[in-house]
Amino acid sequence: MLEVKNFKDKIFILLSVFLISVSLFIYQVVLTRIYSVILWYHYVFLITSFAILGLGLGGIIAYRQQEKKKKRKGSTNSGKKKLVQEENIHPISVLYKTTILLSVSYITVLGIIYVLPFVSSLLTYVVLGTFPFIVGGYFFSVLFRELSGISNKLYFADLLGSGLGSIIVLLSLNYMGMYRSIILICVFASVAALLLAALLKRKTVTAYILLVIVLLGLFIPKNDVSFIEQNFKGVTTSMVKTLGKIKNAGKTGKIVYTKWNAFSRTDVIEIKEDPNQMLVTIDGAANAPMYKFDGKQESLEKYKKHAEYLPFSFGTNNSTLIIGPGGGRDLLYALAGGSTDITAVEINTSSIDAVKHFKDFNGNIYGRPEVRVYGEDGRNYIRRTRDKYDVIFLSLVMTNTSQGAGYALSENYIYTIEAVQEYLEHLKENGKLAFLAHDQEDLGKIVATVMMALQKNKGVYIKDISQYIAIFKKNVPQDSHDSEHIHNPMIIVKNKPFTEQESIDLAKEALKNGNIPLYIPNTYEEGPLKHIQEKHLSMADYLEGFSYNVTPATDNNPYFYNFSKGISPILLFVLIVVLIGSVILFLPYITQQGIFRPALYFSGLGAGFMLIEIPLIQKFILYLGHPMLAFTYVLAALLIGSGLGALMSGRELFNKIIKNVYIPPILVVIVNVALMSILNIVFKNTADWSLINRILISSLIVMIQGVFMGMPFPRGLRLLTEKGKGDIIPIMWGINGVMSVLGSVVSVILSMQFGFNGALIAGGIIYILISLQNKI
Questions:
Q1: Could you report the per-residue pLDDT of 434-475, keeping only the tens digit for each?
Q2: Alpha-helical regions (H) of 72-150
Q3: Residues 29, 199: contact at Cβ < 8 Å?
Q4: What CA–CA distance (Å, rounded) separates 155 from 560?
Q5: Could you give the CA distance from residue 99 to residue 143 in angstroms, rounded to a whole number?
């Protein structure tokens, strides 16, 4: 074990740990962003989970090296000579060389991913993404083993780096773009190498040369940066995303605009064979059409034939709220219906920028005097506005079909029961709420959600709910192999029952333009809604009558696109794969004498931390109004709080054992229960506070929890060192990292099955078990 007594040396070491932690966190987010554009989201979840297992593999490598060194002590003369050479290598020198390798691995791996054409083998992306994590895992394993005497300070620097890294990556991707964010990762690692080199008190030019080369990359002209960011080979050669599908259809597509941010990569694709529209895509696949428009009223007539126009074909349409306008198409339907006051709320600000960039093509749709555009989450907007609307329109807000099953893993507060209740409350007298869905799965769940919301919000009896709903589908040519399926169904909900005349007018308008009624009160009453009206079908019967899950999403369980009955097959597959990987990696080591109990302790910490961290972040999404804000500031507060807890963990006050119970984990459980009890009250009473104040109160609440969550890990390392088991620290570091991945998967499974509180309760149970392990 290395002792560092010099204050300056300690500062240099802690700063290098901080910078490495920042770089690894930014790398993880950047890798996820890049893979999200190249691959489907559920594959990204699997690949990044495997990549992070590299941290555990790095720990194993560090442990095996140490074990080989021990074996040489009683070996031949040549073995002893090699041992002497190895022992003359200062641990700081090992850390320095590892940091240099880490910096080189970042730029090499991301460079290969950039020039690599799309490949269908997921293993290729796993291997590439994993290497920097292996190097990072090795660095931290050696660090905590050799400097276990200051493990609380090291853990503080590590968590502080990760916490601030979550803020830095948001700012860098939003304001510097993808290319410069990659450069920034290497800069952090190179500066860390320079700090470690200074501790060696010897001249080294490697780190300086590396830093200079990296910094030169920041001065590439803006046009060249735009070209680089636009032309990722994996994106431009992929046959499974939108650009590839255009090529497969025999058409010529060209990316004419690209913008990266922390939320997405947004492209605009020009199709040579269709000069009247462009496609605005998110992460290469979520498509929103942008129509060519000259700004003239008479040019709007052709849009009245579309199913999307139906909500605007009757009643009053003066004021309209459009949630998720994407490429601006939905605004044309509102204008065609006579709306003179249109509010458009788009969560992806890059989509807004893209539409504005092509204002000459789209008739400056976002710059018209009737239109106000807001770049924020639609649900957050509806919660803070006091305005009421004649029409609220949600058209394919999340393009689930294009993204496949991946959205099943994502929370979505747009389509919960509480959301629909809030939409209904923001309608004017005789107002309309309209949904354009993807398919019959969406349709079944949206109708169930609307029925629940009408019952709770308006007190409407289940048998009468059908009088508030009309449903249509687009006409598909009979020769199409999909003619029997429901494509893009339109659901129109009123806050008052449809009158007979409204039903007649709506039916005429639909049939005139080839749109097929599935249910219209008074005129076309068929299907499940008719059976509900006639009391032949209960709400429970409706929910159970589908082969897929149509149970409405709630704010505590907002997984609208989870159509699986039971555990999601994707998550089950990821869970099994991660479990098998974990067993293969660590079973040979934890079965050794004296390792099993510490392995249980550090496994519990890894899994328990994630079971609390992930649902906490998800709970704050709705309150802060954007997933990236919750991810950034809530995670930062939790990690910084944990770092502060680690710093204080050496104090006697936080190491007391009362009746064989270690107290800090019990405090985690107490705070956990308090959060489940009071968060909704806090959210409700501070919802109208400014964003900065909401961020501050969120950070304060989460930081308190983080303080106690950060104490057990350095305590465990300290106990291992005191018992002469410091050599197994790399294994414990690896196990903790691997179980964090496992905990994140289990957290999502529990949240989907039992809501966020279910995952929080599971995390609390694990911390209770940790509190009983007062000896490891």
A1: 999 988 999 999 999 999 999 987 788 888 899 999 999 887
A2: 77-87, 91-115, 122-146
A3: no
A4: 38
A5: 12
* Chain segment 255-304, per-residue pLDDT in tens: 999 999 888 899 999 999 999 999 999 988 888 999 999 999 899 999 99
- For the whole prediction, is pTM greater than 0.85? yes
d(Cα 129, Cα 51) in Å, to the nearest integer? 6
- 3-class state of residue 435 by DSSP: strand
Distance of alpha carbon 766 from alpha carbon 760, whole angstroms: 10
Place of tokens 């989907």: 752
Read off the amino acid at residue 318: N
Q: Which helix (H) or strand (E) holds 26?
A: helix 7-38
Question: How many alpha carbons lie under 13 Å from residue 168 in its C-beta half-sphere?
Answer: 23
* Of 376, 377, 289, 367, the residue nearest 333 (C-alpha): 289
Q: What is the pLDDT of residue 587?
A: 87
Contacts of 97 (CB under 8 A, 6+ apart): none
Token code pair at residue 160: 């502080």
Residues 694-716: pLDDT tens digits? 999 999 999 999 999 999 999 99
For residue 2, the model assigns a pLDDT of: 64
If DSSP codes are grouped into helix, strand and coil, which group holds residue 551? coil
The span from the CA of 676 to the CA of 674, in Å, is 6
Alpha-carbon span 640 to 508, nearest angstrom: 61
425-458 core/surface letters (b: 16 or more CB in 10 A; e: else):
ebbeeebbbbbbbbbbbbbbbbbbbbbbbbbebb
Residue 400 in tokens:
């689930």
Tell me the three state secondary structure of residue 144.
helix
Beta-sheet pairing, 277-282 with 319-323:
unpaired
Contact 705, 671 (CB under 8 A): yes
Place of tokens 């979520």: 286
CA 240 to chain centre: 22
Q: Residue 444 contacts by C-beta under 8 Å, 6 or more apart in sequence?
A: 546, 548, 550
Longest dimension (CA), the chain: 100
Which region holds residue 230: left if phi is over 0, alpha if psi is between -120 and 50, else beta? alpha
